[in-house]
Design brief:
single chain; Rna Polymerase Sigma Factor, Chain: A; Arc Repressor Mutant, subunit A
């Protein structure tokens, strides 16, 4: 068996160096999936701890960053499944309806509504396309890095990205047309 070019960090120092490069992108990716930074940081921390505990088993992982991105994706999706979204939405709506908004708060609310709108539209795309778009924009990964994570050729990743953007633009245009007609 040949030795991998890269392997999962085995010492605390190797882990520190690895995280110095990757922690920001892992957190951005988790934030994209979960919708908020606090939950994203928690998920990334849990994944890193879990991976470091089994580091001996991960010695042969040839692309540790891709492996951790996949672990973060899975952990974030697990967390989303566990959430009771209906209850949280009700609490959020009660809170928002009781707040007095100043000008800057309204700007933040508009940005959050736009993020939710994009997230809603991304959820309407095929999973593979939404995933690639998320990796590219939210985690700022290259097509090469995304290909390693999703285990697909770079050309396939680029196609998924391109077709996903075309569908996303079309859905956004349709949504605007419906809004203007009302």
């Amino acid at each position: 068996m040949t030795e991998p070019v890269f392997c999962f960090p085995q010492s605390p120092e190797e882990l520190r160096l690895f995280l110095k490069i990757n922690i920001g992108r892992l957190t951005l990716h988790a934030g994209y999936l979960l919708g908020n930074r606090e939950d994203a940081e928690d998920v990334v921390q849990e994944v890193i701890i879990r991976a470091y505990r089994i580091r001996e088993d991960l010695k042969m992982v040839s692309n540790p960053a891709a492996y951790l991105f996949r672990m973060v994706s899975n952990a974030a999706l697990d967390q989303l499944r566990r959430r009771n979204t209906r209850e949280k939405a009700t609490i959020r709506m009660k809170h928002l309806s009781s707040m007095k908004f100043s000008e800057p708060r309204e700007d933040g609310l508009i940005r959050e509504e736009e993020r939710q709108r994009v997230r809603f539209l991304l959820n309407k795309l095929p999973k593979e396309q939404a995933e690639v778009i998320g990796f590219r924009f939210a985690a700022d990964l290259t097509f090469q890095e995304i290909a390693g994570i999703v285990e697909a050729p770079v050309t396939t990743v680029k196609s998924r990205f391109s077709y996903g953007l075309i569908k996303l633009r079309s859905m956004m245009k349709e949504q605007k047309e419906v809004t203007y007609e009302m």
